Here is the input.
Amino acid sequence: MDDQPLANQLLTKDSSSHYLTEETWEEKDDAKKWARERGKLIRCIIVCNGTTKYSAFQMVCECSGKHKSHAKKDTLQAAKTKRKNTTFSKKTGCPFKLQFKRNKANKWFLEKVVCGSHNHPIPESLLLHAYVGRFTKEEENIV
Here is the structure.
């Protein structure tokens, strides 16, 4: 039931058809790379959600999940100044999710697109985006 988006959330156009493929991959990292590259084509950053098993894993939008406070438990947070807190989180609880599995031939495949919609506007450009601005392994070696 938690795979379903809330009824009052703004959902963008369904992009499920953009990810449909019969392709298989030998390595899990190759499947992850494919999902990230497909996402970049439509200006969507796809990340692994941390629920990884030996035979399955999921990729989600970077905006999925909820903001977690870094305050210690059972402590009273006192404001240091009278200013309003101007920080914000990218986390919007985005329902977008891809599910990958390993088949009997030990190859990875996209089992299903759990949800192909987003509950936030898609950016017009990924220019200056933190994820896209990261160095690749080759660029790290040069630096």
User: Anything to note?
Assistant: The beta strands are 24-25, 46-48, 56-61, 97-102, 108-115. Residues 1-8 have pLDDT under 50 and may be disordered. DSSP finds three helices and five strands in the chain. Residues 13 and 98 are 16 Å apart (CA to CA).
